[in-house]
């Protein structure tokens, strides 16, 4: 039984492909499902609108945030009166060879409230997998971003950022985030090894809710995502999870910001944090 202070949220799980119209149709269906379930916010995974068949394909579909692709999704939010977390949108970059991997927050009137450009780019030789070089076609962002919403203060990130706890520390202790959003397309190999444990660690060390919407399944011959969309509370407990990692659908959970306050009061790490001089520590 949800508490009187609870707020309903949802996280999507899907398998985006190299077809903008097909992905939009899937997202439209999931938005309607989340709105019918009473969710105030629906979070989509990284690359929700497009996944190319090879690295760099997405540059060809990149558009500005006021372009027709984003305007479609803004209309979805307005028509269903729901906030949307659109993680990993292919935003047009500063030159024709690059894009920005941008997390966009749209309110229930269709207005863009905030955007965050992914800082940490996925340049990795995955063990037993393939080599990724996101920096070859993506410009890194520079700014930490948090935004107020009906379900609390949201801290924005994208996928590979999850491996860098500093960004989440800044979101919590400098930007006062209560809910961390982690839209992702984790590889099958790295997801199986680290996805859940990293998400729960970020929730525990920041005392925030974490909403992690995930891509899943095979996007083509060369790319496969792990799946497992999760909603985690500030104590590190999973409070929402789809029945399986491969299905397209939404997971819904009721979150309670008074529980955030309770966890933080009982374990006041914000007051107990000690300044650390990393340069001095490195020289010892």
UniProtKB/TrEMBL annotation:
* A Pfam family this chain is assigned to: CN_hydrolase
Q: What is the name attached to this protein's record?
A: CN hydrolase domain-containing protein
Q: Which UniProt keywords apply?
A: Hydrolase
**Which residue ranges does the record assign to the CN hydrolase domain?**
7-257
Q: Which InterPro entries match?
A: C-N_Hydrolase, C-N_Hydrolase_sf, Nit1/2_C-N_Hydrolase
**Keyword hit for Hydrolase:** yes
The record's CDD domains line, in alphabetical order, gives:
nit
Give GO terms: molecular function aspect only: hydrolase activity, acting on carbon-nitrogen (but not peptide) bonds, in linear amides
């Amino acid at each position: 039984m949800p508490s009187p202070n609870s707020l309903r949220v949802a996280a999507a799980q899907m398998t985006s492909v190299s077809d903008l119209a097909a992905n939009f149709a899937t997202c439209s269906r999931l938005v309607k499902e989340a709105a019918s379930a009473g969710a105030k916010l629906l979070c989509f995974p990284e690359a929700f609108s497009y996944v190319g068949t090879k690295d760099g394909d997405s540059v060809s579909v990149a558009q500005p945030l006021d372009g027709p692709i984003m305007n479609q999704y803004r209309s979805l939010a307005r028509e269903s009166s729901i906030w949307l977390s659109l993680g990993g949108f292919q935003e047009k970059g500063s030159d024709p060879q690059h894009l920005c991997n941008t997390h966009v927050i749209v309110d229930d009137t269709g207005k863009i409230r905030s955007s965050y450009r992914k800082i940490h780019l996925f340049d990795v030789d995955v063990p037993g997998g393939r080599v990724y070089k996101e920096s070859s076609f993506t410009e890194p962002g520079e700014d930490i971003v948090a935004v107020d919403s009906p379900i609390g203060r949201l801290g924005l990130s994208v996928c590979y950022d999850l491996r860098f706890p500093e960004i989440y520390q800044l979101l919590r202790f400098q930007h006062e985030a209560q809910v961390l959003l982690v839209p992702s397309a984790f590889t099958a190999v790295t997801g199986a090894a680290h996805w859940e444990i990293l998400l729960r660690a970020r929730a525990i060390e920041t005392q925030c809710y974490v909403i992690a919407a995930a891509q899943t399944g095979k996007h083509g011959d060369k790319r496969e995502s792990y799946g497992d969309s999760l909603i985690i509370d500030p104590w590190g407990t999973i409070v929402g999870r789809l029945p399986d990692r491969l299905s397209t659908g939404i997971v819904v959970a009721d979150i309670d910001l008074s529980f955030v306050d309770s966890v933080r009061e009982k374990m006041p790490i914000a007051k107990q944090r000690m300044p650390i001089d990393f340069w001095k520590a490195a020289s010892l």
